[in-house]
Design goal:
The protein has about 110 residues and is of the alpha+beta class. It contains two helices and five strands; from the N terminus they run αββαβββ.
């Protein structure tokens, strides 16, 4: 079963001027294009991106030291994420003297 925000997205995209029911509410589909469904969609995207990022670094030698980008808006919880450090701000720069990419972070 798809989440309500996914159903709303597809109905707004393909059937925007028809009337239907999503999550127990019946109205024209274009009226489901609202902030609530947008935030749920962005939360789903954030979760997907962080999971993919985590899988990319998981096999590396220093994966525990690799910062995972954080969010000011969303928070991931659960067994997999509770012990992972998320970083609020990550700034990258190249140190021209040594020729390496350097990053600075702030934990929140």
């Amino acid at each position: 079963m798809n989440p309500n925000w996914w159903t709303a997205y597809n109905k707004v995209k393909h059937e925007r001027f028809q009337t239907g029911n999503i999550g127990g509410t019946t109205k024209k589909y274009h009226k489901f294009a609202n902030l609530e469904h947008t935030l749920f969609a962005l939360g789903g995207l954030y979760q997907l991106l962080i999971y993919r990022y985590f899988k990319l670094i998981e096999g590396t030698e220093n994966w525990l030291e690799t910062p995972i980008p954080g969010s000011h808006l969303f928070k991931l919880t659960g067994n997999k994420w509770d012990e992972i450090s998320f970083y609020q701000d990550v700034a990258f720069h190249v140190d021209l003297e040594i020729g390496y990419l350097i990053y600075e972070t702030g934990i929140y």
